[in-house]
Amino acid sequence: MKDSDRKSYLASVTDRFVRGQMDRRAFLRATSKLGLGAAALGMGMGSRPFMLNKAVAQEELQPSAEVMAWLKDVGKPFAGTTLKFATESTPPSNAINSQLKKYFEEATGIKVEIEVLPLEQVLQKMTLDVASSLGTYDLYYIDQSWAASFSQDVFDPREQIKAKADLAMPNYNIDDFLPALVDGISKYQDRWVGVPYDIPIFIMIYRKDIYEKLGLKAPATFEELYTNSAAITKEMGPNTFGYAGQMKSGHYALECEWTSMLWGHGGSIFNADKAFTGNDERGIAALDYYTKLKDIMPPGVNQWTWDGQGQAVAQGVAASMLSWGEFFPFFDDPTQTKVSGLCEAVIPPQPIALRKPEECGYGEIPGVGHQGGSSLAVSRYSKNPDAAWLFMQWATCADTQALVTTLGGGTGPTRASVYDDPRVKSHARVGAGTTRHLPVVRETIAKYMGSEPDLPEWAQISSDTIPVALGKYFSGSYGSSKEALDDIGTQITAVLKG
């Protein structure tokens, strides 16, 4: 099938799914066959926290005068242009749309229309735009699992910097983006598919007050995570449990948590021969551990995605979770939760063993800090690519990232310099919009980040095959962890064979 035909069919399939004319399982199968890694569609179907820090928005929001002056000068030829951008509800997009884009618009005269949509609708809009080459949208939000499919439909930002020197933002410094994110999110083969834009990543969050009350220390290992959690559940249950999971049957959230446990026990999903290896000795040990941990979690955890997990901690039902770092500012906001100032962040538990990337298949990188990032790119079909390039540079420059971060978005910045920005550091205190967890996020990205395999069939495997089977296992449908994992292996083999 020609690439143009493939993308036209992909657009048709995605449109049918969004309109309710195709169920999710059929959609995942179809996109797998078309070469689209749509695994992260599961993330678009849940809630991601974004709490605007109104105090910052009203009193301390001061975009760089130098950046504004540059925008005013370089934007003059594009005044009156309208740019369109469809994005998932992420902290950067929400902050830019609700608070920051007015500064860009005032400086340049360029109007920016941002559609904040569920992730499956973002994919629908993008695939229809690519298939038609109409250029309805000027900028694309690209989940990391889509990078291969759309790498030729966007500009490599390095090419834009070289070709459009007169439009290059002073001190934009493309080398400032964290190398691990460039490699793990924004590169496909030798091309940059935009620049790193958003980076949700697993860190360890725990109730320091409860830990201190019971004489416990922050869990540095998986064994400590279990023993601490069991002690809390025994002492404080049924009001407060030691740990909350994201274990909803059939949901991508369950696959994310299981994968982190698997990697943490020295396992991997695939081996170097690209065969499923989640059912080896390490994989069985990981699932047995996960089962044991579930036994001391709150009732109903098998109905929770990351949203239910986060709410359990926020409402004092659970004392810890290994999950997305962007929840931390939510927990610190006294207007949103019962636990403001009571939570602490640390790096994920150290792995019992860790399989090397070269021992795995399909680009899988084991690491307990499971990541799920995205890129921002200019569409090759845009009718206003130069104006879009100005917006993309501004939206991802260090100054804008610092403002997004201090507004309370929660997700880690994708630039190294932003972690050291005085504005960001000044908010490293208890309260709404805190940034006190960011050193942990930065360290996790640099040392402990884990990335899922990159293959077309991963959409179906991660959002259907694995979490459905795991859900059945936790409901008692299998006789043992080995039986469940062997069945997952059999199903994955069938999926890969087509």
From TrEMBL:
PROSITE patterns: TAT
Family under the similarity heading: Belongs to the bacterial solute-binding protein 1 family.
Protein name, as recorded: Extracellular solute-binding protein
Native organism: Rhizobium quercicola
Localization: Periplasm
Main location: periplasm
Any GO CC annotation of this UniProt entry: periplasmic space
Keywords: Periplasm, Signal, Transport
Domain of life per record: Bacteria
SUPFAM superfamilies: Periplasmic binding protein-like II
Region forming the signal peptide: none
InterPro entries: Bact_solute-bd_prot1, SBP, TAT_signal
